[in-house]
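Need WD repeat-containing protein on Y chromosome's 3D structure for a figure. Predict it.
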Amino acid sequence: MEYKLSAIGNQSSFKENGSSLLEAESTEIYRNSSSFGDRSRLTSNTRAVSQCRTEKAHEFNPEKEAADERYAQLQAIFQVAEEDGRGGLDIDEFKIALKKTVGFMMRNDQIEMMFKKVDANCDGRVDWEEYVTYNLLEYQERTLMIERLRDRPFPPETKDINTRHRETIVRVAIYPTVHKKASTNKCSLDYNTARYVSLSREGIVTFWTPKMKQIKSYMTHPHVDRATQPWLTDFVCAYNVNMLAVTSTDRDITVFDTQANSFKKRYYITGIDSCITCMDYWADIRDLNKSVMVWGDTSGSVYVLVFECALKGGLFGAVGGKQTAFKKISLPEVLRGFHLGVKGYKLGKVHDNWVSEIRYIPELDLFASCCQSSETSMFLGDYNYKTKKINTYFKVYKGLLAFDYCPENNVIATGGMDYLIRVWNPYVNSKPVVVLKGHCKPVTHIVVNSSRSQIVSIDKGRNIRVFDMKDQTCVQQLSGRVIKVGPLPISSVCFNPVTQRLVLATNTLAMLERSLEDEKSVEIMSHQKSVHGALYNKTFKSVVSCCKESVVSVWDLNTGEKIIQFVNAHKRIERGVEIPIEITAMTFDEPGRRLITGGRDGSVKIWNFNNGSCLQEFLVPDGLEITGIASARQRIYVTGWCQLVHIYIDGASEDYRKNWKSRHKDDILCIACMEPNLVATGSYDGDVVIWSRDTGQVYCILNANKGLLPFTENINKIETKQEESEAQSPEVKTPQEESVHSVQVADWKASASTKTIKTGIGLLSKIRGGLLRSGSSSGISGSRFSKPVESPVDHPLLSSYETHKKPESTKREEYDNIFKKYEAAIEKIVFLQTRDATRKETAVLVTSGAEGWIRFWSINHEGGLLGQFNAAHRIGESVHAMTTDHQNNFLFTADTLGYVKTWDISEFCISKMHNSAKRLVRWHWLLDTFTYLRVEWRGKPMPKSFVSRGMKPHNIGTRPPPMITEPKTTLKWPLLVNSYRAHTKAINSIEYVDDSSVVITASSDCAIRVWTLSGEYIGTFGETWKPLSDKTLKKQALNDFRLPKDLRRVASARTFRVLNHGTFPRWRLAIQRIREQGLEKILSQYEPVIPREEDPKKDEETEVKLQSSDILGKSYKRKIRHRLPKPHPKIIETATSVAVYHALSFVDLTDTDNILSKNIVKEMKERRFGTNVRDRLKGINRKKEQGPVILEVFSKVTKKPILPVQPYKKKPSKIKKAHRILQKKVNDNLPPVLTESETQQVHGKSKQASKSERKAVLSSTSNSSAS
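Structure prediction for WD repeat-containing protein on Y chromosome:
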């Protein structure tokens, strides 16, 4: 036992030392105590494995003997030190002891770091008990952390799938997609686009999409001419030929063609002796002609069909005749070799019982089958007896129900009736390699996930367990109550190795899948809940963070890895269940070796955060929330909603607790310490109380809503008495009397404050009578406290406050009252340690809080408020986190919108300013360091001072500070050198590390991120990055551009520019393309737009209408939206036209006499002629513009050509013809006698004439119809 403790105890030292011998040995011993599941107890399921390992551990091992001897020497050294009365080893003795024994390869700095971790009580000595306990607890916490952070392969709940199956589903299988590359003529299987196929016992085959959506269903036996319908037992997918082979209780195999979304019967195999119970199919991807089909039956026999030319007409050749025709195949003929390209093999009576499962293993060129028989549990052999390969049996008591093969590890996992999962070497059948326990019912299904080296097992109770083959532990367990697939046991399982989807089947379907798309879209989270804070520890160079779930994590800043984690730091127990309590405050002790945390329940705990052990615990008497903790000189200062400051002695019990007098009227929100002896606390009502750390007396009180100068506690007493007297005897005063009274009260406050500073508590006794005289009733000018001038102000609560206002009060006074009541909270206090606190022109105290106001205070009696500015990115946001560097040159602020801003305060509110030469040097250094500054000040000269009085943010004029703070003199901004968005939610903590020049931010979005000083993103705790150094940071700043995915969706253009080192590569590409399209030439064709005259009065009226609403009232406020830049005109490129715009600017039209002049008509004709010539040269036939179809139909009907109809003429008679001829001769003085030609004209030619006329009419009608 002594050896085990020592081996485990010094585990961390050997990790740092780089020695793997002791690590492996201690890990082995630790596994002996707990192999599976919960490592805190030794269950009955793991006794066999641990006993086996213990026997191996007792074997002779020279490395173990050497380690045992070294630990015995180290223990002897500690015992000698304890017997001498020294109480342990100091740091020098500890170095010598480790160098002689177990730490002979460790460096001095590593030994010193280890000594600081072990010596948590800071007494300067370490004994043997502390040493062993520390290492043991550290190892246990790290092991538990690994168990909690282990990746879960499946979600906790199943997803139901609607099906058309009525009976039990006998099998669900993947139908992979075969892709063939034309260039290389190689094939590959695609499981991402693979379909799924399910077959139920009544004969319904259903095809599913890759996302398990139903495509179509078919009946395998649609017309059965008998009373009973056969049951389907199994099927396989012949994916190389797009076929499906189905077997039934009729002792037959039906092969269907599924090509082109069809389902046609192609082959029908008969002559099978026994009913088939299971099948398997494999096709060679290198040559799709080769494939193997195996099956087992109820007699224990195995049949194998080897196809050598499957692509040539199908599995058994072409099928002729009609489309509905199919080909009958006799199995005995196939076994005798009567079918070309097909070889059949029969292995009779391989098993004594039904074949439960069969699988062809192409990596071994063998097949494996199992049954429920103790003698022939699993058979592994070759179907061809001519080859000299292994043919062996694996014997398991009561047989096996399922197995699977892992090609990566070359092992076979089996499950059977004895609840155990065995892992076998295929070449060793005498004893399994590993035996995994955990099931309480027979294991019916086994699936091996080779990519993760995991075994998924399912028992008859529908319990799912996932085992890791490497460390032989249960990674995940899903109870049968969670698997909602009906009351029946699981009949079939299908696992997709690519998408990691597990499909379960009974008479319905369910799915377990972790969506890879969701995993990629989800950002890396440092904690599972909102992060309260993250602190950097200079002693151990690590970052300690905590969240609302009461989880404390320790991170390595150099690499981003999690060192250790302990949960339920603050908790309560209800009915035997530990319920975590939120951590609301945290800090380090003065040496930085321990962590002090405060909870919402008022508990305070001191931790050795390197191993997660709780060293001490306190409880605040009221049990209220702790909001601030500070540690200095063996004292712990605790404050919170109790409005008190409690002082605990480090290492002592609660009996030695002291309480300072109550000086706050509201809840205290923060606390800070300043050397040598000052403590500051800030409350919700805006009071900042400066305490003497040694005596607990009040030095002074600061409040921006009560005045600029600091005052003491007596002024509060006088104010409360004055308020009580006013409430008891109210008097109605005129507005003139009220204004005079306000001036008098203000003067009285100033005089009272100076008097109490001098004569109150004696801390500023150096003040003499000159100051008292200046503080008289006439000493302070009335203009400072006179009635404020009306100015435009805006606040969401202003409209609701108008109902309770006094009739003589102005809008600005109402705004100041709202600010005093609701916007005065102090969220953070920071002391500027390097500044001189005795100078009245130098501010040493910085406060931040509601509305984003940052105020710089001088605690000198003549100092007070020296400067204030708004650091929020948008009006209405608050600044909850703030810090500064070691030299107090920069101030880092973080608001509730997720923005981080860096301010140069080297010249802000300080008496000593830079000279011009020093300011120039610092300006150039700032330009080289900060990208934001280079972008914002591009083309601008260096400012004369690093302090500006410009209005920032944009609408700060409507939300000014209270008038009592004198904004005209105190409102000023330091130089903003950096601004970027670091998170999408509020930032709760910000830290700056001077050693590495990095900024650490913790937010409510569960992420803790690390940034460089200039704003480049390094990473989020929870992922790993390259070790931080000057070279890596420079390379990252020059080459690597990384940004979290959530910021890519919401970040502004300025943030992108800062994080991308001031460049816009995509904008450059867009501008280049616009230039290539000739935008300048297109714009030059149009006249400039003449701006219209605008009426400022109308604009003001419309703005007032938009800011208010007749329905919602004056409380309505229009949403503020960012103004987007004007979009560029969208260009449509066509082959026959110039650029076309969706929208064009226009001017008023002018009257013209003749729009189409001769030159314009000429130009139009030339253009039309040119386009016609170009089209003819290109061979383009110009088509008519097509209109709506109904118009075309209408035009065809209305514009239908009319057939030409000859006018009707009555045929003249022969007598009239002869009369005409004779009359013509009489007129010509010729004899009236008809010649032969004239008689033919009257009789014969009339028929020819009629025929010719008919032909002419027909030709004319045909031409018209063709046109």
